[in-house]
Write a structure and sequence with these properties.
This protein is an alpha+beta fold. Helix content is 28%, strand content 36%. The longest helix has 16 residues, at 15-30.
Length: 95
């Protein structure tokens, strides 16, 4: 399998929707092939403005098939989503 970074930015002004949906999102993450995940923060170091995931998958198509099941995607939270193949060099689980 390979790793992919998913970099998703929220639509502006959607902080409350993120907060309300977060418990379902975290539950979904715990059942998914995502070993590392966390929110992107605004300059205040507190306000959540997006998500960064590391996804383990066999292909980009598998990542693209997984993401629509994220509760954040279901409530249309994201303004943009980027998927990048990624090589885990330092601190990798295989090391």
């Amino acid at each position: 399998s390979m790793y992919f970074i998913v970099y998703a930015k929220d639509k502006p002004g959607h902080t409350q929707l993120r907060i309300e949906t977060r418990p379902d999102h975290v539950t979904w993450l715990k059942k998914s092939p995502v070993p590392v995940a966390g929110p992107l923060l605004a300059a205040d170091n507190e306000t959540m403005i997006g998500s960064m995931l590391i996804v383990e998958a066999d292909s980009r198509a598998d990542v693209e098939a997984l993401l629509p099941n994220d509760p954040y995607a279901i409530v249309d939270l994201f303004e943009s989503v980027e998927i990048h193949p990624w090589k885990w060099a330092i601190g990798s689980p295989a090391a």
